[in-house]
Amino acid sequence: MDRIELCREKFKELFGGEPVKNEGTDPEFMRILQRFIFGEICYTGDLDNQIRELITIVVLAVNQTLPQLKAHTQASLNVGCTPVEIREAIYQCAPFIGFPKTLNAIAVINEVFTEQKIALPIQSQETIPDDQRYQAGLAVQEQFYGNEWKGRYEWLTEEYAEAVPRFLTEFCFGDFATRTGLDAKRRELLILVIHAALGCAGDQIKSHTKGAMKAGNTPDTITGALLHAMPYMGFPRLLDALNAVGEILEGE
């Protein structure tokens, strides 16, 4: 099949309808968009529809492109992602994009869930009591990132030198990485994609590439995930991320 036929096939899988032909005010642009994303990008690499849609929704949450997030939340359900998986992917954005943007994204996915008569709130995925956030978070942090962060902020005054790494451990890892609903492999891959979508490069991308690989992601999966994110975040951020990832993969 050519990319027009592939686009039609993928679009139906995701959205249950037909791609644009001549409808709307800008059919030419929509044909370029749809044929590239759904006729080419979605067939490059071996990622399945479910992880592709989870990648898409976290990038859309990062960018706060909320109408598209609504469409892809429905697409995620259409290809078999569970409400829990979708919610956990969005929750995982919070340490990196902040609470307000995450709340905006949560409102959008909950709108879709309500339309689909999915009961809210969705079942809890918490696994640890509040007083174990640090130790449980530290176990995950050291598993995937070692102790490279230790001592990095000793130049701060005593209060902040203690608080910054503790908040990193308790919030990023204790509050989120200990939750069920997403396995570590997918969670770490999505964290890497979130950093790429934010425009992070250098040390943070390198660190999260190592973490994603320790969680079981292959170089091909990492490359495929970043490429899939490209139409939603742009080529410059893809290339910046690949440059940093390449330094890690070439050293393996």
TrEMBL record:
A UniProt-annotated Pfam family: CMD
GO molecular function list: peroxiredoxin activity
Domain Carboxymuconolactone decarboxylase-like: 27-110, 163-245
Taxonomic superkingdom: Bacteria
The protein's name in its UniProt record: Alkylhydroperoxidase AhpD family core domain protein
